[in-house]
Structures are given as structure tokens and as C-alpha cells.
Design a protein that fits this description.
With 314 residues, the protein is an alpha/beta fold. It is built from 13 helices and twelve strands. The chain folds into two domains: 201 residues, 3-Layer(aba) Sandwich (D-Maltodextrin-Binding Protein, domain 2), CATH 3.40.190.10; 94 residues, 3-Layer(aba) Sandwich (D-Maltodextrin-Binding Protein, domain 2).
Length: 314
């Protein structure tokens, strides 16, 4: 997830990065899609496999980068046209004056299918939030959604979150660090939860503190790009939603596609928890996280979800 420092760096670069798109007739059907190679980014791959881009006359290319923060920076630099970013980051960018907006919903966090779990080593004595006081918790991005939700979970479960140290670490490094004892807990995501189930033990689901359902990421673009390519943006949203609807209802078939794209073992994909995918863009699935982010000062002021959604797309 893009961190607050990425958003601030983008804001600092904004005067140089943003040259307005010229007004033009809506003829361009080419789009550069920033997408990772993991479960959260599957919408464009499903749309590709299902022939939805061809059906909607969308000429596309998929551009890969290391993380969602890189996509925001690539979009600001004009290297891609659309990408995914989490609500806290786009809200902070909006507050700082960057002309970014959501035009489609992405993967959802669901209490019924948690894909991120706070874990300890299997033989760890830690069993409760209180046990983490004075300990170290690894997350993949500081000062962003993962940290504030973990702090909220700690507080709601009786711990003093100010006594917990947070450390930035990538998912593949977390289980080895837990086993070595160099960290005490980690907010670990799929497929690593399933792949390492014999070495770890879950103690809580911090994302559950936000809402039953909320967007982990949403599809965004520059507002002037959306204005200049409104028909294309609607076509992309339609393709993503149709792909999401199909994937949500066809777990076995979509698992085969996901395994082929991600190179994760098919049996792991079949058995792990997977993010439900959006079939619309709903402000109610954004606002609870924005409210929490403002309370924890991850964004500089309160932001309404409607402020970061392009007109006509919710």
C-alpha cells in the first residue's frame, strides 16, 4: 500500500508532473493499466481472459511495478494512465492538491474472508493484544492503512498501542523473521498465510476494526484524463465489474487464472482466502477508512469519500 510519505512526495512533485490533457473528442481507446501480480490486482487479468476488453473495444497494455505506491508515482509522471491505490493515500494526495480521483472499485476487505491476519510464530507465548506491549510488529507500510488498523485493533483489545513498535517488512520476509524471533508479530497476507500455516498462528484481524466491507484499493486516474476519456473510463469500470462479478461466482475457474498469472501453486490459490472484487463504486465502502485515517492523522484533515470519486462514477 502506498504510504503517507509517497503521497507527500507526489504532492511535492505535482507542479512538474501534471500537464493538463488537452480537450479532445473521445476517440482514444488505448489505456496503460498499472497492475501488480497478486490477488488484489486480478480484475484486469480476468477481464483480459474473459475477452471483456475486446468486447468493449478497449486497446490496453498492463504495466507492472513493485507496489501500488510505484503506480501512483508512475501515474503522476505520465507512465501509466490508470492504477490502484488505497483510500488513505488518494485522500492525502487530494488534500495536497493532486488531481487524482477514483473511477472504479477494486478489491474489498471482508470480515467473512480475511486475507490479512496478525500472526505470531506457532510456538510464541503471545496470545493477546496486551501481550504485544513492548514488542515489535512487522507491516509492509508504515503510517498507512495497515498501521492504523493494527493500532486500532490493539486499543480495542486492551493494549496500549503506544508501547508497540512497528517495523516495515515485505511479506516474504515475515515468516522467517517470526521463526528467528527478530520480530514478535506480523500482519501477514495471502498467499503467505496459507503457504506458512504450519509455522504461524493468527491472533487477530486488524482490518475488521474498519467495517464489514471496505475497499483495500480503488482504480484511479488523473481527473483531466477521466474528463478527456470519460467513455473509456466507463468501459474500463464496466470490464472490471463484470470480471469481478464472474470471479466472485466462479472461484474454481478464477483460481486457475490467478495461479497462472501469479505463479502461486494452484492448490494454494484454491484453499487460501481471496479478496472479493467490486461490482460497483460505493462511497460507503470508503468513508469508514477515511474517518479512521483522519483520526490517526494519516491524512491532514477529514475527507468525504465523494471528494475523491470522479463525477458520474459512483
Amino acid at each position: 500500500m502506498i504510504s503517507r510519505r509517497h503521497a507527500l512526495a507526489l504532492a511535492a512533485a505535482a507542479p512538474l508532473a501534471f500537464t493538463p490533457f488537452p480537450a479532445r473528442a473521445q476517440q482514444n481507446r488505448h489505456v496503460r493499466i498499472g497492475a501488480g501480480i497478486d490477488d488484489a490486482f486480478m480484475q484486469p487479468y480476468y477481464a483480459e481472459q474473459l475477452g471483456l476488453f475486446k468486447k468493449l473495444n478497449v486497446d490496453y497494455e498492463i504495466v507492472h511495478a513493485a507496489n501500488p505506491g510505484a503506480y501512483a508515482e508512475a501515474l503522476a509522471a505520465g507512465a501509466i494512465d490508470i492504477g490502484m491505490v488505497d483510500p488513505t493515500a488518494i485522500a492525502q494526495a487530494y488534500v495536497k492538491g493532486l488531481p487524482f480521483a477514483y473511477f472504479a472499485g477494486g478489491p474489498l476487505s471482508s470480515r467473512d474472508a480475511p486475507t490479512l491476519v496478525l500472526c505470531v510464530a506457532k510456538n510464541s507465548p503471545i496470545k493477546t493484544a496486551k501481550d504485544l506491549e513492548g514488542k515489535t510488529v512487522a507491516i509492509i507500510s508504515l503510517h498507512a492503512t495497515m498501521e492504523i488498523t493494527t493500532r486500532e485493533w490493539l486499543t480495542k483489545n486492551g493494549a496500549d498501542a503506544s508501547l508497540v513498535k512497528f517495523f516495515e517488512l515485505h511479506f516474504p520476509e515475515m515468516t522467517p523473521a517470526l521463526s528467528r524471533g527478530t520480530i514478535d508479530a506480523a500482519l501477514l497476507g495471502e498467499p503467505f498465510l496459507t503457504e506458512n500455516k504450519d509455522a504461524i498462528r493468527g491472533i487477530g484481524v486488524p482490518f475488521d476494526t474498519v467495517a464489514k466491507l471496505f475497499y483495500i484499493f480503488g482504480w484511479f486516474a488523473r481527473r483531466d484524463w477521466i474528463t478527456a476519456n470519460t467513455d473509456l473510463a466507463h468501459s474500463l469500470a464496466s470490464a472490471f465489474y463484470e470480471a469481478g462479478k464472474w470471479a466472485n461466482a466462479h472461484k474454481a475457474e478464477s483460481a486457475v487464472i490467478e495461479a497462472g498469472i501469479t505463479k502461486v501453486d494452484l492448490q494454494t490459490v484454491r484453499t487460501m482466502q481471496r479478496n472479493p472484487l467490486s461490482t460497483s463504486l460505493n462511497a460507503a465502502y470508503i468513508q469508514p477508512l477515511l474517518d479512521m485515517a483522519a483520526r490517526y492523522k494519516v491524512i491532514d484533515r477529514p475527507v468525504m469519500a465523494s471528494e475523491i470519486i470522479a463525477a458520474g462514477f459512483a
